[in-house]
Write a structure and sequence with these properties.
heterodimer; A: 98 residues; alpha+beta; Ubiquitin-like (UB roll); five-stranded mixed sheet; 5 strands; globular; B: 371 residues; mainly beta; Methylamine Dehydrogenase, Chain H; four-stranded antiparallel sheet; 30 strands
């Protein structure tokens, strides 16, 4: 089980109140997490990664275990603590404002 | 009694304003999609309960929302906008080639006859269509590929296809406008297109009379006379009497011929409305006075409509899709401002009052006349 923390706008869009729990079959990678997330919540397709290129949207970052995983390969394994659900996988929107 | 529903897109959500035919007491519903930019919402002429909304942010991209109950509830539908084939390049601001990149949907135009068919005008400029209630989208590539696309250049707001007009009398005829490429027409259901910019004169391009490159801000048409088009260009208010084949200026006595919005009275095809804006660098009304100008002669002779509108210290803008008409016997005129006001006139512009004063900046206003 993997724990995913969504930005507020995406929680509203997906109609979830808190963190999202995902079951991943096979290796726990960014791609597997996002595939499972979009499968469970189809309305999120295109909001985190481009639907055509599958690249991360530029104003979003991926953090886990105090690491910035935004530029890691989508097929790289997540840190063990994130893969096991002990630590969440954060999808973070860039801070806007002054 | 019949009524009206005003669909308002703002920088931070969508609002639905409803009233009966008197248009005196209004119910305000919203914000829908709070925190998101709602560039445009529009209802189907074939089914007034079917609404479409374009929802986006720079963070999370583009969503399309659909309502089947007049805006009481909404459902996110298809948001995959993929250009047909390898899209190539257009010109960037500095004149260099720049790849076509989808950014957002500026305008949604439901079919006149089929609630499940809807067109989307997008940035970077292209036209998409859905025939399944916005679940899936397909580009109509004949526009982008008709031959001049590689020379199109963005306006300050981006290379956006912001105007889509369906001709109710000639099946297959459609008009679109792009900033800053110009106006285009198809007569065969969007398979082939031609620029219709003859007569436009724009000093900001090397050849002021070029075939494309004009910053058309908006076009309006009356369904009873679809060959007559009215245009608010970056500068100049223009008119065509031959489906866009040629244009002549009808700015006449306007205090400034810069502006964004233009629309036509619901029952009088020669009565048109604009909101003059001081200049392209200031983007607010002249002299701090918010004035709608009306011409009952199809242009050239204009009168200021001011009763109920602020006549001092007003420095808002009225954007291109932020004016609309209802079709009640006494035609209602509506417009929204970047200051968050939505003004309504139930008597064709004689008297105005705000429906709401403090919304986020208004991006678009559409009106449905309900049975």
């Amino acid at each position: 089980m993997i724990l995913v923390v969504l930005p507020a706008h995406l929680r509203t869009l997906a109609q979830v109140n808190g963190d999202v729990q995902l079951e991943i079959h096979g290796h726990a990678t960014q791609r597997a997490v996002l595939d499972a997330l979009e499968s469970l919540y189809p309305m999120l397709r295109g909001t985190i990664r481009d639907q055509v290129t599958l690249e991360r949207r530029p104003f979003l970052r991926f953090f886990a275990c105090e690491e910035d995983l935004s530029f890691a390969s989508p097929d790289a394994p997540l840190p063990d603590a994130a893969a096991s659900g002990k630590e969440p996988f954060f999808i973070i929107g860039a801070i806007a404002g002054g | 009694m019949s009524g009206v529903r005003v669909l308002v897109g703002t920088r931070k959500g969508g609002f639905v304003l409803s009233a009966d035919g008197k248009r005196e007491r209004w119910e305000v519903s919203g914000p829908h999609f709070a925190g998101w930019e709602i560039y445009h919402m529009k209802g189907s002429p074939a089914d007034p309960n079917r609404l479409y909304a374009s929802q986006s942010t720079g963070w999370f991209g583009q969503l399309i929302q659909r309502s089947d109950d007049g805006g009481k509830s909404w459902e996110p539908v298809g948001n995959k906008f993929a250009y047909d084939g390898v899209p190539g390049t257009h010109k960037w601001y500095d004149g260099t080639p720049h790849p076509w990149e989808f950014k957002r949907v500026w305008h949604m135009e439901p079919s006149l006859t089929d609630p499940d068919t809807v067109y989307a005008g997008v940035e970077d400029a292209a036209l998409f269509r859905s025939t399944d209630g916005a679940k899936t989208w397909h580009e109509l590539p004949g526009l982008r590929e008709h031959g001049t696309g590689s020379s199109w250049q963005p306006g300050a707001g981006g290379l956006c296809l912001h105007t889509i007009i369906l001709d109710p009398q000639h099946p297959g005829r459609m008009y679109i406008a792009i900033s800053a490429a110009g106006a285009f027409r198809t007569d065969d259901g969007a398979k082939t297109w031609k620029p219709i910019n003859h007569g436009l004169h724009s000093q900001h391009i090397p050849d002021p009379d070029a075939e494309v490159g004009h910053c058309v801000h908006h076009i309006a048409m009356h369904g009873a006379r679809p060959e007559v088009l009215y245009m608010q260009k970056h500068w100049d208010v223009m008119r065509s009497d031959n489906a866009g084949d040629s244009w002549q200026e009808v700015s006449g006595n306007l205090p400034t011929d810069f502006g964004f919005a233009i629309d036509v009275h619901a029952h009088e095809p020669e009565t048109i409305y604009v909101v003059p804006i001081k200049s392209d660098s200031e983007h607010f009304p002249p002299d701090g006075k918010l004035r709608v100008y009306r011409s009952r002669t199809g242009g050239n002779e204009w009168e200021a409509l001011t009763k109920g509108l602020p006549q001092r210290d007003c420095y808002v803008n009225v954007l291109r899709d932020a004016m609309a008409m209802d079709a009640l016997d006494s035609c209602g005129v509506y417009f929204g401002t970047t200051g968050g006001q939505v003004y309504a006139s139930p008597d064709a512009g004689e008297n105005w009052a705000p429906i709401v004063r403090d919304l986020p900046a208004v991006l678009s206003v559409e009106v449905q006349t309900l049975p």
